[in-house]
Design goal:
This protein has helices at about 30-45, 90-100, 115-120, and strands at about 10-15, 55, 70, 80, 120-125. With about 140 residues, the protein is an alpha+beta fold. The protein has one domain (about 10-125): Glutaredoxin (3-Layer(aba) Sandwich), CATH 3.40.30.10.
């Protein structure tokens, strides 16, 4: 899997080294994250989604919440999702990614995402653009009298 450099509007990254706690496999064995990557790739092919939007990532540092994917793009919110089941969740991941791609800033309300991506959200980071949604000045501290 690969992603076109700057020409791509959005990217779906998949951690292929994810494994659940207590996983009995040896260190260099194929892991459940690779199974999730395969399932997402197969579902994307079935749906006619360009494989260029998919990207394998060796580690996304979310070992306590495997399996993990991220949605990102220039000028967009970045989302990180975990607790994904390779045998079940590829369609939900691609449904949410399709929604993400329709939004100019990538912002998705919780209720809009498939249930597994409501419960499994690990983070939503606003884009670096000026005036990005959700970025505000915090209220001034109240001075004690």
């Amino acid at each position: 899997m690969s992603v076109k450099d700057s020409a791509q509007d959005a990217c779906l990254s998949i951690c292929f080294r994810c494994k659940p706690e207590g996983w009995p496999g040896v260190a260099d064995a194929r892991r459940p994250g690779a199974d999730l990557a395969d399932a997402i790739e197969a579902e994307a092919t079935r749906r006619g989604i360009d494989q260029e939007v998919l990207r394998d990532v060796r580690c996304m540092s979310q070992c306590k919440r495997p399996c993990v994917v991220a949605f990102s793009g220039e000028g967009r919110f970045t989302y990180l999702f975990g607790d994904l089941d390779p045998a079940r969740d590829a369609p939900a991941v691609l449904d949410a990614f399709a929604l993400y791609r329709t939004r100019p800033d990538g912002f998705m309300e919780r209720f809009e995402r498939p249930e597994v991506l409501q419960a499994g959200i690990l983070g939503r980071v606003p884009p670096l653009t000026t005036g990005a949604r959700q970025v505000e000045h915090r209220p001034a501290a109240v001075q004690a009298t």
